Amino acid sequence: MGQTVKHFIAGEFSDGQGQHRLAITNPATQGELAQLTFASRAQIDTAITAAADAFQTWRDVPAPERARLMLRYQALLKEHHDELGELLAMDTGKVFEDAKGDVWRGIEVVEQAANIASNMMGESSENVANGIDTVSYHQPLGVCLGITPFNFPAMIPLWMFPLAIAAGNTFILKPSEQVPLTPVRLIELFIEAGAPKNVVQLIHGGADEVNYLLEHPTIKAVSFVGSSRVGEHIYTTGTRHGKRMQCMMGAKNHMVIMPDADRRSVVNALVGASVGAAGQRCMAISVAVFVGDAKALIGDVVAELRKVGPGAWDDASAAYGPQISQAAKARVLSLIEQGQNEGATCLLDGSQATVDGLPDGNWVGPTVFTDVSPDMSIYQEEIFGPVLCCMNVDSLDDALTMINSLPVGNGTSIFTNHGGAARKFQHEVLVGQVGVNVPIPVPLPFFSFTGWRGSFRGDLHAYGKQAVRFYTETKTVTSRWIYDGDLDQTAEPNMSINLR
Ligand code: NAD
Q1: 247 an active-site residue?
Q2: E strand or H helix at 484
Q3: Pick the catalytic residue: 282, 346, 389, 390?
């Protein structure tokens, strides 16, 4: 292609001027898609200053007008849905329907951002003391920063900048350096929709650029989505520098299968949830916990997984695409080997998978382990590949103990026809997103998306309508107005609690 990946700084699309340069490749072919040069310090400073200046006027643009920008943006994203899906498929290797799904889930957040005028409404109470009223307003914070991972290059940037900007902030997006092409197109379309110059900035970079941004005093709030290792670092650095933080991090998601669960639903759900998107989802099911006799289903699951495999983005028979990079593939293969060395039984080994006509893709076939114990690396680590660990327990209580003992708690599900078992599970499991007969329970953006325990740090108002709470300060105003001289202006209002 020979193109360079553009930054969007101070209202202009421009090349990076930093030292670090890398080739962006298609993970299904290793073919070069573009060259990316990271931003220089001077470019980052320019972006921050431009965003800070823009905030001074953008914060006063009426909320309905900011909402209208989101309506225009939503329409443009829909118009370009196929084109964005194809670009995203090149960037990530995702199969077309999955790539379009990534874009669609982002469009739904833009729809949520279009509700900003009502979501910005505060509270009010009249006569809190004699002649005194209190109202609260939500006011934007200033310059916000978003740092996003490789696995959803449309949806996750769209979780952040539309809501933050609709709330009256300006925004700097630092997407994953592994998949920069889709975010550039998202920003182009945002500008085409009429976003004012400088309201959004797009900076490409890696750890150094992120660290510089995190320490910069002008940045007020940071939304991060990515791995636990990086997220912990970002959370501590950001909070140390006085920023409001939300970090959505790594996962290890279990599906509990009760003996009474519907056989066909379990098998279908496990196939899609374990290997879909090549297992590169923070909500992928990577552990199936079979309770009692439910373990009889393992053979059926393996039989179905034998029938599916990876392939090219436009191959309608492919279940999923490649791992994002050769390094990611090597890591998955090394974990598969470790699983075998540590004594798990590999019922299906996808480490030698190939795809006709695409010999250089980062392919890994569906892989299933049984006889997995909690101390093994394949259980402890987030594999982020199409690998399913099957565990057997005697009771729902044992399943709950296992899930609640892990340090992370992003998503989980239970398959059962027993209302009491479902109720007990949803009530007692220490996990943020819970599915009952639903394998990947990602909520729509009128709800929040938050992992529990090690899957999340910071402010819980993530992603949906509630994100307005994250991207704004609440200001309460208590006022006392005199009219017709009927109040004594000199008297002290009594706002203390009267205990008598
Ligand atoms: P990652 O943590 O490697 O990268 C995420 C972002 O952090 C990128 O923009 C990257 O440039 C930046 N980064 C990387 N190293 C850094 C460092 N040392 N200092 C500062 N910034 C750094 O994550 P990834 O591999 O791109 O994405 C996969 C991970 O994201 C998985 O663990 C997955 O579970 C997680 N994820 C979580 C959610 C969620 O909602 N909880 C959603 C999607 C993905």
Answers
A1: no
A2: none
A3: 282
